[in-house]
Specification:
Blueprint: H1 2-22, H2 26-41, E1 51-56, E2 63-69, E3 75-81, H3 90-101, E4 106-110, E5 114-119, E6 130-135, H4 141-149, H5 153-158, H6 196-201, H7 205-210, E7 214-215, E8 228-230, E9 236-238, H8 243-257, E10 265-266, E11 274-277, E12 291-293, E13 299-301, H9 306-319, E14 328-329
Parallel strand pairs: 3-4
Antiparallel strand pairs: 1-2, 2-3, 4-5, 5-6, 7-14, 8-9, 8-14, 10-11, 11-13, 12-13
C-alpha cells in the first residue's frame, strides 16, 4: 500500500511540473503517468506475457494502447490512454462497446490522472457501465488506495466486480454494498464535492418532488442561489445555495453528456478571461482567482459575483448548443 501512496505522490508532482506538456503529448502521458501506475498495482508493462501494447481489437479496426492479459494470454482488459485532460465522458462508452465486440470484459480509459473502468458485459445498461472512477490529483488517499488496488492482476483476472468498491448496487448475488465515498478535497477546498452520483443519492424523492422548479433561463431574475439543479435527463444535483456550485455542477454535467464540448471556454464576456481551461490561467496568463478542478482535470474559474455567475451559467449551456429551458433550478 505504501508503494501505491508513493506512486500517487510522484504522479501528482509530475502533473504539476509538466502539465503544459502532458496536455498535448500522449506518449509522455503513457511513459510518465500511466506506466508507473500500472506497474505499481502489479502489471509489468515490459512483459508481453502480462501487457501487450498496440492491441488489435479484432474486426473493429481499432487498437488499444494496451491489453492486460490473463495467465493464458487472453485480454481481460483493454487500456486506452489520452493526453492529460484529453477525453470526454462518452469516450468510455465507445471503448466499452469496442471491448464488447472483442469479447473483453473490462475497458480502462485514462489520461494518467483520471482513471475510468468500464464493465463490458453484454447487455449491461449504459448508465451501469462505469464501475470505477478515480482522480489522482484530488481524491482522498484512502479512496485511491482501495480503488487502485482493484486494478491488480489477480483482481482483474478473477473477473469479479466485488473488487470495485465504488460501483453502484449490481444484480449479482452476495455482492457487498459499496463503502461510503469520502468528499473530494483538492486545490479549491470546499468547492470540490463528491461526484454527481454521490450528490444525487443525498436527495430524497420527497425533496425533489416538492421542489418548485424554474427553467435556468430565468436564473438571472433570482436573488437567492439555487439549492438544486435538474438536468434534461431528469437527474438532480445539490448546489447548496451557491452560485459557484451551480457553475461547477452545470459544467460537469455538460462535459459528461456533450461529446463536442471542448476546453478552453471563454466566459460570457469573452475578452480576456476563460471560464474553463486546461490550466488555471486566463488568456493573458493571469491565474484564476478562485479555481475549481472539474472531475476530468479541467479547471474552472469561480471568482465571479452572483450576477456574473448567473450570466455564465446561461452562457455555458448555450455554448454547449443546448436549450436553457431544458435545465431547471429550485
Amino acid at each position: 500500500m505504501q508503494e501505491i501512496l508513493d506512486t500517487i505522490k510522484r504522479v501528482k508532482q509530475t502533473i504539476r511540473a509538466y502539465r503544459n506538456v502532458l496536455v498535448s503529448n500522449q506518449v509522455l502521458t503513457r511513459y510518465a503517468l500511466v506506466d508507473i501506475v500500472l506497474k505499481t498495482v502489479g502489471w509489468d508493462v515490459h512483459d508481453p506475457a502480462q501487457v501487450m501494447p498496440a492491441w488489435d481489437m479484432g474486426h473493429t479496426g481499432e487498437k488499444a494502447d494496451y491489453a492486460l492479459l490473463d495467465n493464458a494470454g487472453r485480454p481481460v482488459s483493454v487500456v486506452r490512454v489520452t493526453t492529460l485532460s484529453g477525453f470526454a465522458m462518452p469516450d468510455l462508452a465507445k471503448l466499452v462497446r469496442l471491448a464488447q465486440e472483442s469479447s473483453i470484459r473490462f475497458a480502462i480509459l485514462t489520461d494518467g490522472n483520471t482513471w475510468l473502468v468500464g464493465d463490458a458485459t453484454t447487455g449491461r445498461p449504459l448508465q451501469d457501465q462505469e464501475i470505477m472512477r478515480v482522480v489522482l490529483e484530488t481524491d482522498p488517499e484512502n479512496y485511491l488506495l482501495v480503488n487502485l488496488a482493484s486494478l491488480a492482476p489477480t483482481n482483474l483476472r478473477e473477473l469479479d466486480l466485488a473488487y470495485f468498491p465504488n460501483q453502484p448496487a449490481r444484480p449479482l448475488e452476495n455482492l457487498a454494498p459499496p463503502p461510503a465515498i469520502s468528499p473530494r478535497r483538492g486545490v479549491t477546498g470546499p468547492l470540490e464535492e463528491p461526484t454527481q452520483a454521490a450528490q444525487v443519492s443525498q436527495l430524497s424523492a420527497a425533496q425533489i418532488n416538492s421542489a418548485e422548479w424554474q427553467p435556468v433561463s430565468e436564473i438571472v431574475n433570482t436573488i437567492m442561489a439555487p439549492m438544486m439543479l435538474r438536468y434534461p435527463d431528469s437527474t438532480v444535483d445539490e448546489t447548496q445555495g451557491s452560485f459557484q456550485r451551480v457553475l461547477t455542477r452545470l459544467a460537469e454535467y455538460i462535459i459528461r453528456h456533450n461529446k463536442y464540448f471542448q476546453a478552453p471556454v471563454e466566459d460570457y464576456d469573452g475578452k480576456k478571461r476563460f471560464l474553463i481551461n486546461l490550466i488555471p490561467a486566463h488568456k493573458d496568463g493571469t491565474p484564476f482567482g478562485a479555481k475549481s478542478m472539474l472531475f476530468n482535470g479541467w479547471y474552472m474559474e469561480t471568482d465571479y459575483s452572483p450576477a456574473d455567475c448567473k450570466k455564465n451559467a446561461l452562457w455555458l449551456i448555450q455554448k454547449a448548443g443546448e436549450n436553457p429551458n431544458n435545465y431547471f433550478f429550485s
